[in-house]
From TrEMBL:
Secretion signal span: none
Native source organism of the sequence: Mucilaginibacter galii
Name under which the protein is recorded: ABC transporter ATP-binding protein
Alphabetical keyword list: ATP-binding, Nodulation, Nucleotide-binding, Transport
InterPro entries: AAA+_ATPase, ABC_transporter-like_ATP-bd, ABC_transporter_ATP-binding, P-loop_NTPase
Molecular function as annotated in GO: ATP binding; ATP hydrolysis activity
Family membership noted in the UniProt record: Belongs to the ABC transporter superfamily.
Stored SMART domains: AAA (SM00382)
ABC transporter domain segment(s): 6-235
Pfam families to which the protein is assigned, alphabetical: ABC_tran
Length: 310
């Protein structure tokens, strides 16, 4: 089996008195996108900054492709590219000048710099803007430049902290497409507090809350986890509660008022189709049916409880 590109063991950090992260463990495959999800202040940036060698951890170990980042920071950093939350762009430089500068500080051989810059501009769709000042680029293109600087030295691991923050919907789609392409040949860690971002492009998910890892699995497993298990129905002529409770798969019936009822179920959400059919057959006059997916806050709360109960 190939060695993991990232291995984090019992990672904990405190800035002063309180722990910002506590006992984080995970490993990452050599390619693909891992989503790091957590609400504001959960501990994502702390974890990323330690992972990228910007911050020294209080406890625990981080290995990049088997290299301990604390023991051999220079070697480990050669293998990774980082786009921090606020990318350090020099707005008075052109795209070409800025990426050339980034190539130099990444110690790319002088003879290869022009080619590396041309290649990365091509990959990130920046060639047309080579001579444009960064200050005159849109937010989406600035973000592309931020991503370009993170991959110019062809690292095995790219860490992107909230890369789609502040972009409009079209720009978000374009940046997502670029990230997917980048992840075909390397590992990408994508940090965000927006669940739908992770659902859109990540194969695996790690969820941090209050400094602790509360979920670590595939995106498919996560989607199953947050599958809805209640629906809200609105009927002009609802049947007696017992009749609804007798439907196979319905595990609870909570009338909210004369016409609104919350139904709990333990089968697939497709049970809503059965309710619609029955309503037509039996004249319940169903007007509205809504599956109630847990909000991210609820999912966090549920997962946190699960973890602390373990
Ligand atoms: N330099 C610092 N000094 C003291 N405490 C800090 C510092 N940076 C972060 N913290 C605290 O550590 C905890 C984790 O913060 P962190 O920035 O890692 O979270 P985050 O998940 O990245 O949130 P956000 O998305 O808002 O950046 C928070 O309680 C935060 O207040």
């Amino acid at each position: 089996m190939k060695q993991s590109i990232v291995k984090i063991e019992n990672l904990s950090h405190r800035y002063s008195r309180d722990w910002a992260i506590r006992d984080i463990n995970f490993e990452i495959d050599q390619t693909g996108i891992l989503g790091m999800l957590g609400s504001n202040g959960a501990g994502k940036s702390t974890t990323m900054n330690i992972l990228c060698g910007v911050l020294n951890q209080t406890e625990g170990n981080v290995y990049i492709d088997g290299i301990d980042i604390r023991q051999q920071p220079e070697e480990a950093k050669k293998l990774l590219g980082f786009l921090p939350q606020n990318a350090p762009l020099y707005l008075e430089l052109t795209v070409n000048e800025y990426l050339t500068y980034c190539a130099e500080i990444r110690n790319i051989d002088k003879r290869n710099i022009a080619r590396a810059v041309a290649e990365v501009m091509e990959k990130c769709g920046l060639t047309h803007f080579a001579n444009r000042l960064l200050r005159n680029l849109s937010g989406g293109y600035r973000q592309r430049v931020g991503i370009a600087q993170a991959i110019i030295h062809k690292p095995k691991l790219v860490v992107l902290d909230e890369p789609t923050n502040g972009l409009d919907p079209n720009q978000i789609l374009e940046v997502r497409k670029l990230i997917k392409e980048i992840a075909e040949e390397r590992a990408v860690i994508f940090s965000t507090h927006i669940l739908s971002e992770v659902q859109a492009i990540c194969r695996d998910i790690r969820m941090i809350e209050n400094g602790r890892m509360v979920f670590a699995d595939t995106m498919d497993a996560f989607n199953n986890y947050i599958m809805p298990d209640t629906m809200l129905v609105f009927m002009d002529n609802p049947p007696p509660t017992e009749e609804l409770a007798a439907i196979p798969g319905i595990t609870g019936v909570d009338p909210l008022n004369d016409r609104s009822i919350r139904l709990r179920f333990n089968t697939s959400p497709d049970i809503s189709k059965l309710i619609i059919t029955m309503s037509v057959q039996k004249g319940w006059e169903l007007k509205e049916i809504t599956l109630e997916k847990g909000s991210l806050d609820e999912v966090f709360a549920q997962l946190s409880n699960k973890t602390s109960n373990r």
